[in-house]
Amino acid sequence: MAAKSALHSSSPNTSSFLNSKSDLVHFRRTQLRFEPGIPSKPIKWESCSRTREQPREKVKQGGRLFTVRCTAEGIERGMLIGGGRGREEAAASKILDIPERFKVVALVACVMCLCNADRVVMSVTVVPLATKFGWSSSFLGIVQSSFLWGYIFSSVVGGALVDRYGGKRVMAWGVALWSLATLLTPWAANHSTVALLAVRAFFGLAEGVALPSMSTLSSRWFPSHERASAVGISMAGFHLGNVIGLLLTPIMLSTVGISGPFILFSSLGLLWLTRWANGVTSDPRDSPFVSKSELRLIQAGKTDSPASDGQFPPLRLLLSKAPSWAIIFANITNNWGYFVLLSWMPIYFNTVFNVNLKQAAWFSAVPWGTMAVSGYVAGALSDSLIKAGYSLTIVRKIMQSIGFIGPGVSLLCLNYAKTPVTAAALMTIALSLSSFSQAGFLLNMQDIAPQYAGFLHGIANSAGTLAAIISTIGTGYFVQWLGSFQAFLTVTAGLYFVTAIFWNLYATGERVF
To answer: What subcellular compartments does it reside in (predicted)?
Structure first.
């Protein structure tokens, strides 16, 4: 036949092959192995060309190599050779091929959400517990602060453990222990006040490792120019935990009872552990799931030491430098304001504006929800400024200044709020702007002391926890003695302003240790 003779022709001219196109498509199976009858419309044959843009089929017959370009109107070339489905599956697989570091940060964000939700449960259930047991406002402050008694001790130890054993293992043990403490809380409340305070202190002891673990995992798994966004995602989960806890707890209280929210969140913690145990490593170099290209990207974007030498960090050296104290003071101020709002916001709306518990939970939840979004925005903005060429020192100072001056002004204005809507709006602004601190002092630990970041985080967090204890208890006494939140809000605002000045004088983005 004409087509067959054309394929075996020794002439370089392919015109005889092209002229036999009508015979070629009538074969049961052609030399090119195309199945007949697939095209329902006439096949458009084009002359062979050796331009780089056109796709070509290479066919070798009788020692000769022919290049043919075949297209069918309305039918993809891949369908003719049976490769369409394979390419579609490959494309789908590529879409679902999420980089391993994003899977890690998603799990971290989930556990940070659970971490804060477990804390908030007590902030809501303390209202019916106070009514049941007849607690005063000052004793409410003691109950609220009992979580911090254990938290203050585990921060330093937990930070050192994270530096030595890695974030994965320490985080796993922390989640297991605080889930157990959460489960035991309603039993302890019914047993005795001493038992309740002891269980809450144990709960704080277990949760003290969460933030150092998160910070260290972010530094191991992300290059420097993505680290602020990673921390922003993790802390977004942390703040969403407030929203989930504040909204779900009143519902569980009214339907199941006091034990309901504690059983729910402790079960979620154990469920999270099953995924964490087998899916994450402390260092991307030890992960069987991370690709070589992703590992190269992570390592190329690092400017810090990957791990410590296992020795106990030099405490005297860390405390001898002003940048360390800038971080410590920033943590003190951040925790002071944060825990006042976290512990007292539902009570504030309930007492000042006389709203019921469910309404107070909704008013309290809105600021935390916006804080989750603004925290990620702060991280993305910080990373974009670094990519644009701004120094780490300038970026850290800008972010922290917004994170302190903004909340200070908002809290001063809160003293003049006359409606719960206005108060919620001002608290929303305060907390949204305070989340910029995540791209300030919270990341600065990795900047100045990458080798001892967990330990430095623990020191700063312990100091901040002590401040949180004082502010949480102090708010209760201020309310009881003065009958108003205004004086304490003014003190908190002043602390924000003073620390912002200190930060801009002594903070640095350069490595110090």
So the answer is: Plastid, Chloroplast membrane
